[in-house]
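Q: Can someone sanity-check these two? First one:
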Amino acid sequence: MIHTTNYRVIYGDTDKAGVVYYGSYLRLFEIGRTEFLRSMAKMTYKEIESKGIVMPVVEAYVRYKSPAFYDDLLNIETAISALDDYSITFFYRITRHGEDKVIVQGSTKLCAIDESGGGITKLPEELVATLAPLVIRPKVPHEKVN
C-alpha cells in the first residue's frame, strides 16, 4: 500500500537559489516513513523502541530528477518494498502536489538493532505480521541513465 504525506518546503530546506538542498530529501523520506508507520501500521517509532529495538538506516538511495523550490507543496509517497525478519526497505516518490512529474525517488533500508546489546536482531513478530500485508513492489520506470 502507498501512503501519501504532504509537505510544504520551508526556507531552511533550500540553498541560496531557493532550490531544495539535495540532503533535505533524506529528511523528507524520514517524514514519509514516520507517517506511513503511524497511518498504515498504526504504530510509531517510539512504540517500536519501547520493545528495545532501534532501526537505523543502513542503506539509502536517492535519484534526483527535477528540482523542488521554496514554498512548493510536495507529495511524499511511501511504500514498503521489501520486508524480512531483520530489515524493512521503504520506497519513496516525491512529486509536486497536483503534478505527476517525479522530483525525487529513492529507498532506505532499516535494520533492527537490539538497543541493549547493539547487535542485529529480529524485528518483533507483531511488527512483521502488521507490515507484511502492506508490502508492494513499486513500478519504477526503466530509464536510460546518462
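And here is the second, same format, sequence then C-alpha cells:
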Amino acid sequence: MHMRSKLLIAFLAILLVSCGRLFGKSRLAETKRRGNLIVLAIEQYHADNHEYPTKLELMLPKYIETLPNPVWGVRKWKYSRTVTRNDTPDFELRVNESSQTGDGMWRYYAYYPVTKGWEIGD
C-alpha cells in the first residue's frame, strides 16, 4: 500500500471516531434538553400537590403536553420517586445506555434534584 493511501485511511479513521463522539455528545445534549422539560413539569406538579408524581403519565396534559423521549441510549425514561437520607421526598429521572446498564460496562444519564444536575454514571 502506498504511503498516501495509508495516510488517507488513518485520516478517515480519526474523522470517523471524532464524528461518532460529536454525534454522541449532541444526542446527550438533546436528551438533557428533553429531560429538563420533564423535570420542570415534575417540579410544577410537586409545587401544586406537595408530592412527586408516582408515574410520569400523571402529569399529562396539565403539566406537560407529551413526554418527549430521550434520543440517547435505550430511548426510554426511567422515573422513580425516592427519599433522601433525611427522609426528604425526592425523585430520579434517567435513561440507560443499554438494557444491560449496571454491569459496569454500560452507562446511564440521570437527573438528581439534590444536585440539580445531570450526571453520567455506570
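A (reply): Looked at the second one. Residues 25-121 form one domain. The beta strands are 77-83, 89-96, 108-112, 117-121.
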